Amino acid sequence: MKARALVLREFGKPLRMETIDVKEPGDDEAVLIKVVGAGMCRTDLRLWAGTEPREGFRLPFVLGHENAGVVESVGGKVKGFKPGDRVLVYAIWANWGCRYCRIDKCMQCRDQSIPGQSNYYGGYAEYLYVPDYRYLVKIDIDPVEAAPLADAGLTSYSAVKKAMPYLHPGSTVVVYGVGGLASYTIQYLRRMTPYVTIVAVSRSDEKLKWAEELGAHYAVHPGELGDMVKKLSPEGASVILDFVGNGDSAKAIPLLEPGGAVILVGMEGRDYPIPVFDTVAWQFAVIGSNYGSISEMEEMVRFIRDHGIKSYVERVPLDEDAVNEALNRLREGRVLGRFVITPQGG
User: Fold this and answer.
1) Spatial distance between the Cα atoms of 320 and 124, rounded to a whole number of angstroms
2) Angle subtended at Cα 225 by Cα 220 and Cα 230, rounded to the nearest 5 degrees
3) Which pLDDT tens digit goes with each residue over 1-21?
4) 2-151+292-342 CATH fold
5) Rounded to an integer, what distance in angstroms lies between the CA atom of residue 326 and that of residue 340?
6) How many CA atoms lie within 13 A of 117 on its CB side?
7) How far apart are CA 124 and CA 113, in angstroms?
8) Hey, what CATH topology would domain 154-288 get?
């Protein structure tokens, strides 16, 4: 079928509205989604700029890996989904055959595709082809509000779960970098670990104020973090949730307590310098965290519904000028929460 989409034809240049061909389901397990919300992520910025080459990413291409919408049609072998269902699209389309897929760790499968990043067009379009219904999770909330959950919500949820074994009553948790992922992280921490003290870190005064509104107990600039941690926990922070991931954020590692952990999520830098002596001597753990499992996505959707977790979104119409302006604002850090493209309006 034909659909309108914003197409990337040249790195760093504005996306252009075009009509694309979207594959439709047949006698198979595929599903066609009418995209209602497509979140805009900093990974999109790197792909747009051409600074993050990926196998299976070939121009022209359609970005957008945070997608939610309504089932338009289903293949003949699809089970459990029908036209009209609201769904959130899991972003790691793995091969189901490797040992990681078999234990619900699709995000570790090396033979994976990500819509809007590799092999398949993403959600900056009216419709999205999903090759397997098993990548879908039913939702009962507005798909525009749900779209960022496919990455920002899920990635932060999985990161908090990885942090929990290192936390104890009285722990200090550092949330380094305040943006879309941190907005969920702070809310998760307040509900899942009410016994910890949350310190948010940002260079932006506006984002520090927002972090406190989200539930952070303290919000500081990077240069103030050391004194704050020493004041709250003389032994150090139990966990640093790093949503920046560069040389500057790595400077916080020595602020950990012995046996503490960095949960590394951000990928803004090419290198992440680890202090070797401190890490070995005090047995710090550095744990990478990327997306989460399909089971965690299902769990997260229930948790968000039951605990009133809020998505902070700014709606952007599927329009050349509007989307390109949003990409530039995202690049400059001028957004709280997540831009969400709304191909169906609203």
Assistant:
1) 11
2) 125
3) 999 999 999 999 999 999 999
4) Quinone Oxidoreductase; Chain A, domain 1 (3.90.180)
5) 9
6) 21
7) 17
8) Rossmann fold (3.40.50)
